[in-house]
Amino acid sequence: MIALFAVAVAVVSGQEVPNAPASPQESPAAPVPAAPVPAAPVPAAPVTPVIEPPEELTGGALVAFTRNEYLEVLAKEGIPASRGCWLYGDYLNDIPFVTDPVSCAQACSLDEKCFHWNFKFMVKRCDLKAYNGGVNQDIGDWITGDAARYDAWTF
């Protein structure tokens, strides 16, 4: 360290730098950098935008319009989904930063413990579900779907 400082001072002051004596040991090899940790996949936003509902729609008509728009987007993305909610089998509820059903379905696909997903579209809530439970299609303000792995487990 002192020798390095002396060389730096000599260079700055314009003096000639003497040859450094040979090191008795070879310097150790540079450490091998660790492999980069891959980033967690982030579900993509829907390719097809959802049409804003007409201002005059309220109540059940607004819910039906919004549900149908989202179901159409899911169909265009090739994601099977339907009206309703998967009951029981709670796994992860209210997934942060998931604000559309396409991203909700993709989040379920990327998680090996997820077999079903629910999206409450009026408040943009995504829940992931385990294998057990069942679907209730009478619930109109939710959209639900199954991960592809669910079909593989069904007998």
TrEMBL record:
<protein>
    <recommendedName>
        <fullName>Apple domain-containing protein</fullName>
    </recommendedName>
</protein>
